[in-house]
């Protein structure tokens, strides 16, 4: 499998694990010293990332995350490092019954490990948050880029 195909598979494994609420499979997509930022400040380290996901998922009855168009490129100076950008959408139902739709993209850094490619960092940039009818907010939430 090519590096690009392996990274694409990683991105899709991440989204699939979100859809199934399989936190162990989701956590397996991360490097030990990774960072994750989805708008609440960066979270560093695999254990802390897992705890942050658990807190986030407690808000929802269901989440369907889809990975869309994207690309990745291996660093020519270091074949064990790559970067990429992948667009995503999420359809969610909160525990209170509210339906939400999210659109955005992840800027990623990947690292090759003994178990294959893993996320070294993921930073989500929001393009839309709100009701499925797109009457919500386009652009990042207030204060997102303050950090």
Report on the structure:
The chain is an alpha+beta fold and 147 residues long. The protein has a single domain (3-146), classed as Nuclear Transport Factor 2, Chain: A, CATH 3.10.450.50. It is 24% helix and 51% strand. The chain contains three helices and seven strands, in the order ααββαβββββ. The chain has helices at residues 3-20, 23-27, 46-57, and strands at 30-37, 43-44, 60-75, 78-94, 99-113, 116-130, 137-138. Strands 1, 2, 3, 4, 5, 6 and 7 form a seven-stranded mixed β-sheet that branches. The longest helix has 18 residues, at 3-20.
Topology:
Blueprint: H1 3-20, H2 23-27, E1 30-37, E2 43-44, H3 46-57, E3 60-75, E4 78-94, E5 99-113, E6 116-130, E7 137-138
Parallel strand pairs: 1-6
Antiparallel strand pairs: 1-2, 3-4, 4-5, 5-6, 6-7
Low-confidence stretches: none
Text of the CATH class: Alpha Beta
How much of the sequence is in beta strands? over 45%
Biggest beta sheet summary = 7 strands, mixed
How much helix is in the residues? Answer: 10-25%
Order of helices and strands: HHEEHEEEEE
Question: What is the CA-based Rg, rounded?
Answer: 15 Å
CATH topology: Nuclear Transport Factor 2, Chain: A
Terminal-residue CA separation: 37 Å
Q: What oligomeric state is this?
A: single chain
| Beta strands, count | 7
Q: Supply the CATH architecture.
A: Roll
How many domain regions? Answer: 1
* SS content category: alpha+beta
Number of helices: 3
Provide the residue-averaged pLDDT. Answer: 93
Instruction: State the shape.
Output: globular
């Amino acid at each position: 499998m090519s590096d690009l195909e392996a990274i694409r598979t990683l991105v899709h494994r991440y989204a699939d694990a979100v859809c199934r609420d399989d936190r162990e499979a989701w956590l397996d997509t991360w490097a030990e010293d990774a960072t994750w930022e989805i708008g609440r400040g960066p979270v560093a380290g695999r254990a802390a990332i897992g705890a942050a996901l658990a807190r986030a998922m407690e808000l929802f009855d269901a989440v369907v995350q889809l990975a869309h168009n994207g690309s990745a490129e291996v660093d020519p100076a270091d074949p064990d490092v790559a970067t990429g950008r992948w667009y995503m959408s999420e359809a969610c139902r909160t525990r209170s019954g509210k339906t939400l739709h999210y659109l955005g993209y992840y800027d990623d850094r990947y690292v090759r490990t003994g178990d294959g490619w893993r996320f070294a960092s993921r930073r989500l940039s929001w393009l839309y948050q709100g009701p499925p009818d797109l009457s919500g907010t386009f652009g990042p939430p207030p204060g997102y880029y303050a950090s």
